[in-house]
Amino acid sequence: MDSPSYPSSSSSFDLVGRALRDYIRQHGPDAADRSARPDNDQSDIAPHRTGRTGRTGDAHEQILGAVNLDRDLRITRYNLDVPAFEGLTVEPGTAFVDLLPPGDVPTVTRRLRQVIETAQAHVARVQRLRRDDGSELVVSMSILPAATPQDGLTVSLIAMAKRLHLYASETAIGTSLDIGETAQSLAQSLLAWGDVVAVDLDYAVWSGEAIVDQAQGRIRLRRAALVPDRVWPPGYLTPGDDLPREAARLLSLAVKRDDVPQAIVIPDREPIERALDSPRLLSALVPTDRPVSVACVPLVLDGPEDKPPVVLGVAEVWRRPERPFHDRELLDLQELVARTAHHVDLARQHQREHAQVLALQRRLLPRGRDDTIEVATVYQPTTPDSAGVGGDWVNSFPLPGGRTALVVGDVVGHGLGAAAAMGQVSMEARALLSAGLAPDEVLGHLDETVTMLDDADVGLATGYSALGSTCCIAVYDPVNHQVVVSSAGHLPPVLVLPDATAETLTVHPHPGLGAEFALREPFDVHTFDAPPGSLLTLYTDGLVEDPAAAIDEGVGMLRRAVSQVHPWDDLQRAAWRVVTELAPRDRQRDDVTLLLARMTGRRERDTVAWRLPARDDAPARARSPASALLQKWNVREDTRDSALLLISELVTNAVRFATGPVSVRLIRTGQGLLCEVGDTGNGRPRLRRGGPFDDRGRGLRVVHKLTTRWGVRWTDAGKVVWAELAW
Prior knowledge:
By secondary structure, this protein is α+β, with helices and mostly antiparallel strands. The chain has 16 helices and 28 strands.
């Protein structure tokens, strides 16, 4: 396909120049400078009420100019002799980029050179130009290529119409649900009417709270945005600073006269000083020591018919007093700020929901550390512009027998609905695992829970469905040095062995939680060896998914990344490094969750096990080796007596109510002694309140008094009664 042809640089310049001359001949040289005269209001602080005033046509605000550049991007000719471009210093031989704000120089330079090299025009870029006084002019800039490489190019400039600027500003402001970004976008847009713009928001907006009390003495404002970005005088408030109470009260009084929010103008420095009446307030609110004027425009949110409007904050537009604010400009300012107020309120509501969900999510993150396993987690939600925090969750917690549960899940959706389902599923998983159920049994219960969450009352009727959520449960036994894994539709874990060999664990695929009853199958349990020093990785799909690549490639990249984690590395820092490498913020499309577990296990000398026949002499046969072992472990005599009594009662209970052999295992931990007695029975020991002459249950009451915790967990062969005894 042939490239389109464009006029040469010279002819482009002439074309723009003719259009400019025709415009001036038709409308007169002062067409763009026409505006309604200010009212004859001579008060220091003049309120501006919305009303119909004389307006010039919007077409009069668009003025065309042209600048011709050579291949070195230096100005050779220009035609900017119209009022709209007043204040721009343009001289032949100077660099065009001298007209640009420093932050825009790299981008515009790249565009200019691209047009020279490709001969493809770059049309209608919204651009700022620097005036001599430091203020900025917003223009629409088009770059036209030359017909031959040796010719330069022409840059046409159109001073943007205020109506077009209003539309473009509202479109830009409404693209973010972050309060700070929304306020910054508003300030950038208002800069077209002034030299300095500050946006101050009610403190409740930042916290997401409803603004219910706006008593004049209780107004709290915080600076949300300030443009342009420069070094400000000492004491001047910058974003994040709270306004002094007196300043907030004065602003609220000024913009809410007669209980009606309205814009006000203070035309010179002298009335500003009289109004503030404090050097500290002057340095905090006024951006310069020179003469200055300001327009204060409230961000107003209309409430119900029977309630007054709510003021979300105040926008302050500062400029030199020799450029007074005309009625037409104030109308434009009010219109833009009014259109922005509902975006600020949406950001406030989003901030509230985001904070609630994030608090719930972080409440579920693992806390603490066990001496047999080190766990590091990273939860990174999508940007605040998304629908909110999603349903990813991660947890780790101790289980009976010194084991540790590692759980990662992904509940479908985002927002409060997903967060509520995530919280319920996560807490249920923890409760069932702590009760001694195996991972596959826990997933079976979660499968039913997700189905119930989708019923007519709490599911589809409210527009949310958790069907298809995924979950992976891993249980680490530090004595056997094994990991038991069960998964419901989740991506497989990655295990890094002590020699840095990384492998993706083969887990039988299973549908996500809440599958149709006819499709449900028993959840599989897989057991893997995890020698001391192994690293287990659990994660959600946001870490490895890329629309441009297969999911296996993402898992392979994760496998390579975690294999680089050195045994001496700080595990939390390593986790953040992996997330940054695989899912950098600028490419993040979904919530990212990662769990790294470095498994050290128990030393052989800290554990011992016996297997005894289920006979009446089993308690005595268990006490004899246990006594020798406790002496070897240097256990205090009083603690040793309690431990021997505990072992005797548990073995007696196993012999009385079970058949087959009895197993005894003692584990020395950092906090005390863990005693486990297993048997082949399926009855659950229950602690009952007995009478003074009731012999039944007396052994369990002794166990309950001696230990800090005790309970039952189920095995394929029967059950294990465990008890913890503090040193």
